[in-house]
Amino acid sequence: MSEPVVYDPADFGAIPTPRALRKWMRETRRKHADRSFGQLFEDVYLVIFTLAMLGATGGNVVKHLNADMATCDSQHCWRLWEVIPYILIPLLVATTLRALVSIGPVSGSQATGFWLLGTPVNRSALLRPTYWKAMAGTAVLGGLVSTVAWAVLGSPFTSLVEVSIVTTALMICAACVTVWAQQAERRTWWTLRVADVLLVVAAIPAVWLAVQRFREPQVQFANVILYLTPRYADEMPARSLQDFRVPLIGLVSLVVVLGLVVWTARTLGRLSRTSVIAGGELLAGLAGAASSLDPSMLADVVSGRHWRLRGRARTRRGRGSEGAALIHREFVRILRWPRRLVMAFALLVVPYAVAGAGFDPLVPIAAGFAGFAAIRPLMDGLRSVCRSKGLVRALGYDLRELRILMAIAPGLITVVWALAAYPILGSGAATFAVGAGAIAGAVRQASARPPSYAGPLVASPMGAIPPGLFSQPMRGFDVLLICLAPVLLGLSSTWLLVIPGFVLAIMFSLRPKTD
Amino acid sequence: MSAATPRLAIEDLQHKYGDRPVIEGLTFTLDAGQAIALVGPNGAGKTTVLKCIVGAAEPAAGTILLDGEPIDERSEAVRRAVATLLDDLDFFPDLTAAEHLDLLARAHGNATPEDLVDTLLDDIGLLPAADQLPGSLSSGQRRRLALATTLVRPRKLLVLDEPEARLDVDGVRWLSERLIEEKKSGTSILFASHDPALVEAVADSVVTLTPLP
Fold it and tell me: Which residues are in the ABC transporter domain (chain B) (predicted)?
């Protein structure tokens, strides 16, 4: 038998610095590496070139949209320019707050939490690289999103730079707030309420835009608008001042953002281990789902986390038996997360706002996509049975029957939603096409099986991939577009009924694949 | 169904994973009110046999008869008669433990399952967790809930894969007593297990599987 290990304080020296620890980990990992950078580049060059090409194409599209919108002299464009900033800025800040609160934003893996955060090593310094990554990520993503958004709205270059800097700075400040919020549950609660308020603030101008359709006669004020068109020129200060405006805004934003970011970095030591790990788990789940290019799996991860955090619910007994019981339970389930239902009906503002802004040809497609976004989150029940063969067996129904039964409650909500959109869609047939597209698309996406790496794989320059991997994100949107096609092509009412009706019939008569 | 027809009859069952045979020439019958235990080391094919029976795996050859008819999980009669517990049971993340049982009982045609659900929750030790969502249940509690899903519905045949897994000592004792009661009420039980005490207490006969070379 070996000698017992005796604790001797003399065996232990000073606590290592986080920098030394990270260096040790980096060097240890390097020893395990089995590929050089050159070999790695051979594998990823295709991805880099693809991204570069997509970026160039996207940039070109944005540039053209910018030029088109800048020369737009209609009343509708003017209205959009007036209103959109008041929708976009609160929306972006609210999204930043919500998204970052849910992932941390300072997060680490279970392993980091267990092996490193439990040690006496300086926690603040350990978490700093993750913190800087979160801030840099927000800055890059925020800058990209705001630049594209303002560019598409037709802002001239100088204004584009100005508003993008301000919007990005606001998003980074929001990111700092989320780090502060991560340090106490109560702060998190308040931050989320602020995000809710910002969403409401974003909704107000959207509603205003939506009601314009009904308030004003459709008369073109071309002369008035032509007078107003060179608005940027009118609003611009003298040339000499303008030269200083961008650097001045940039400098002020930089000082404010840097000050806040540095101050927040000093508070990292107050983050609890659990709050860091929770975000890490979610990120790992989201990364796994994203690698499958499966939007349903991403939704599963978010929804699963919501219910895990909630923990308990008041049990509500069902009603009826067999199919009726399943339908009733779906209604109960939908009402259990009322925010989703509220959001579903709030999304009605989208087609109305598009119409209010005067983009009539876009109304059906806006309604279709808004309907899809409204109905899809209500499909969690269908999603659960489609990913669990055990659950299907336990319920004692065929999956095809279950898909019909579990789509009835969201389907009825779709009917109400579509009827509420009817006044702006203008025809019963178009309303049917939009409703059918929304429900068929949502059902198709919710019942999609994830790509399987266990089955046959297809050789590609990026390695072996499962067939259908790249079509996965399009699932659901494909049938939505098929249903909307007759509306967009201006076909007769008969086709508006026949094509979506056919899609629905096919959708609910086929048995979903589960393997 | 004649009196001599067994509840479950398996004849010359074969299954392969790719080219590798996992089960070859497996034959046995299970009568009403009887229990058969499948035992054997890991990789012997116990779960695969159960999966073939419930339609989760496709046999390479052989026949599986339920009450004299070829078993087909697409048939409504089969789905109503066979209660299964494999390791692929997931839960609705937003339904409480009690609501899961309530829903399953109703889906199987019981319009007033309240008393049954409460009794079963009490019986299985989940009454204090009745309002909990699955994500907040412990692994043992989830296992108990999974077991309860097979008992809240009508059944002629129980197919259970390692039902004792993740249960504590009291849980295994309860399971053993419950399965004996099931047999007395005429339910047939086919289960795979690594627990000799459970096998001894419940099984009328034992089928031993060995890994094929």
Answer: 8-212
